[in-house]
Design goal:
This protein has two domains: 174 residues, Flavin prenyltransferase-like (Rossmann fold, 3-Layer(aba) Sandwich); 217 residues, Rossmann fold. Helix 1 links the parallel strand 1 and strand 2. The chain is elongated, with a radius of gyration of 26 Å. It is an alpha/beta fold and 402 residues long. The strands form six sheets. The protein has an eight-stranded mixed β-sheet, with helices on both faces. A five-stranded parallel β-sheet has the order 2-1-3-4-5, sandwiched between helices. Helix 1 packs across helix 9 and helix 5 crosses helix 8. Bound molecules: cytidine-5'-triphosphate. Cytidine-5'-triphosphate binds next to helix 12 and strand 16. The site of cytidine-5'-triphosphate has 14 residues, from helix 12 and strand 16.
């Protein structure tokens, strides 16, 4: 995930270097933002060498406004972490003052914010600072409390920047909240499959992969170790633990079975071809007769296979399938739930123009043994969150569902 690390002018600024390294060790990308007083304590070059990114230290630097950098960054970061945070920056953030890059980024971002204050004991106890900290806390900002001990100013007391390990752990806790998916393997399939006829033609479908990609990203956000098995799509996959690219249904079948063994959840969002050409011709087929007949044969049903295996073994992952339908949506989804021994079927009516294939929104009905739950038209990102809420509930009792 991408973390903006704001460094302000405190003696603890040198510890922010260790924080950046620690975050990188956890697999995150870090972009450092330094206030002008921070640069007096530690050089931007240090952060640049560690993060391997340009350090943002001046809002007015040529280039910084070409793509309105604070806005561009505000929408791409997963976390804004300020360490160390002085009384001055805390005051600015609490009061909406946006007069440098860091304070402007704070007002522009909707990412979670984590602040590690560091200052002299009396400053930390001052009513103005307390009030500003309370304001930030009331608005959802989280804190890594400063430690007690000898302060650089010679005082003994509370105000010393928390240790880098503690700050990294706090960032991890914000980014990967300790829900039921944390650390569990989630396998998601996405996109269409292409069944080749010859080197230039294939039988495919209109799936864009958006729904599966949104599910993979949301599961990763909840701390799951996500393997995404994607058919041919033009969209960029989200950054998850592992992305496996496949083309044909048979390849997807093999990849899913190989990966499903230690998965806690398998979500089959891919639109897998039900039939594939009986044979793929190695050379391009040239036209001839007025009509030709394509002979197609059944592909393996991946979800049904997983359901049958789980039934036989008496244990296995939570299984989620999709049902893209044009009529009798809920009845067909319920039938698939039973036939494939799945736990949840996400049914969508693909005859609607605003839901299903190639669009960013979806209107689905969740069909499980507990009943039928229609959701309103929402973005696929929101739908993914709703589906994973349901999955988290299903994970709780880990008994077999047959
Ligand atoms: N599926 C699968 N393997 C296949 C076909 C489908 O794993 N060969 C999965 C899909 O990923 C989806 C679910 O099964 O999660 C339902 O897919 P769908 O095509 O709607 O169902 P089918 O079983 O193909 O049923 P029908 O053709 O009767 O609609």
């Amino acid at each position: 995930m991408l973390i903006a690390l704001g460094v302000t002018g405190g003696i603890g600024a040198y510890k922010a270097v260790e924080v950046a390294r620690g975050l990188q060790k956890q697999g995150h990308e870090v972009v450092a933002i330094m206030t002008s007083s921070a640069s007096r304590f530690v050089g931007p070059v240090t952060f640049e060498a560690i993060t391997r990114r340009r350090v943002i230290s001046d809002q007015w630097e040529p280039g910084a406004n070409a793509d309105i950098e604070h806005i561009a960054l505000a929408s791409t970061i997963d976390l804004l972490l300020v360490a160390p945070a002085t009384a001055n920056i805390i005051g600015k953030l609490a009061n909406g003052i946006a007069d440098d890059f860091l304070s402007t980024l704070y007002t522009a971002t909707r990412a979670p914010v984590l602040i590690a204050p560091a200052m002299n004991t009396n400053m930390f106890a001052h009513h103005a600072v307390r009030r500003n900290l309370d304001t930030l806390a009331a608005n959802g900002v989280r804190f890594v409390e400063p430690g007690e001990g000898y302060l650089a100013c010679g005082w003994i007391g509370r105000g010393r920047l928390a240790e880098p390990d503690e700050i990294v752990a706090a960032a991890e806790a914000v980014l990967r909240p300790p829900g039921p998916l944390r650390g569990r393997k989630v396998l998601v399939t996405a996109g269409p499959t292409y069944e080749d006829l010859d080197p230039v033609r294939y039988v495919g479908n209109r799936s864009s992969g958006r729904m599966g990609f949104a599910l993979a990203a949301e599961a990763a956000r909840r701390g799951a170790v996500v393997t995404l098995i994607a058919g041919p799509t033009s969209l960029d996959p989200p950054s998850v633990h592992q992305v496996v690219r496949v083309r044909r249904a048979a390849e997807m079948h093999a990849a899913v079975l190989e990966q499903a063994g230690d998965a806690a959840v398998v979500i089959m969002a891919a639109a897998v071809a039900d039939y594939a050409p009986e044979q793929r011709v190695n050379q391009k087929v040239h036209k001839g007769a007025d009509t030709i007949t394509l002979v197609l044969t059944r592909t393996p049903d991946i979800l049904a296979d997983l359901g049958a295996r789980r039934l036989a073994a008496g244990t296995g992952p939570v299984l989620v399938g999709f049902a893209a339908e044009t009529e009798d949506v809920v009845a067909r989804a319920a039938e698939k739930l039973h036939r494939k021994h799945a736990d949840l079927i996400v049914a969508n009516d693909v005859s609607r123009g605003d839901a299903g294939f190639e669009v960013a929104t979806n209107a689905v009905t969740l069909v499980s043994r507990d009943g039928v739950d229609p959701l309103p038209l929402e973005t696929k990102v929101r739908v993914a969150a709703e589906i994973l809420d349901r999955v988290e509930r299903l994970l709780a009792p880990a008994e077999v569902r047959a």
